[in-house]
Amino acid sequence: MQPISKYSMGLRYGLITGLAYAILLFFRYKFFAGSPIALAIFSMVSYLIILGLYLFAGISRKKELVGYADFKDIFRTIFIVIIITEAVYVIFNAIYLKYVDPAFFDNFKSTTRNFLEKSGLTQDQIDERMKSFDDSGKQMTPMSLLKGFGSWVVIDSIIGMIYAAILRKKKDIFEEPKL
After folding, report:
1. What is the model's pTM?
2. Region at 67 (left for phi over 0; alpha for psi -120 to 50; beta for the rest)
3. pLDDT tens readout for residues 27-79
4. Are 89 and 43 in contact (CB under 8 A)?
5. Nearest 5°: phi and psi at 150?
6. Rounded Cα–Cα distance for residues 98 and 107 (Å)
7. d(CA 102, CA 142)
8. How far apart are CA 178 and CA 175, in angstroms?
9. In this structure, what DSSP letter does residue 70 have?
């Protein structure tokens, strides 16, 4: 089986992974925002699922190349998936948090404050932890979205490089051709 294109596998899995991420984000915001612990756990599980999909894209590219693929071929596919997935993440967050549920940060701030009060922290400790919510509106500026996009592309790309290094397999030049 000849590879269709060096980009098609990345585009295909990028759209699949991006769609999966959008669904996971929707569930995170809709069903897990009532508890800071549940939100954190679901966020971690969601990210592990996305990392698994990156790996699956690399494995699929290697299979498409009949089991022999160098680092560049596998990483190119994973990198395309990462770019599409992180773009979907930014676009979904921008739309959801600005238009669908603009009160999300306020509601989550209130939920977190209640959680911290029940956990027995002093008022000073609670106020210190709640400071990060004061900047929640700044998280949706175009510049902060772009910075977040760039940061996560770099982080995910490092993981993608590790995957590509593990999955690469060059054809042995001394291997006998199978007839």
Report:
1. 0.84
2. left
3. 999 998 888 889 999 999 999 999 999 999 999 999 988 878 889 999 999 99
4. no
5. -60, -45
6. 14
7. 16
8. 9
9. -
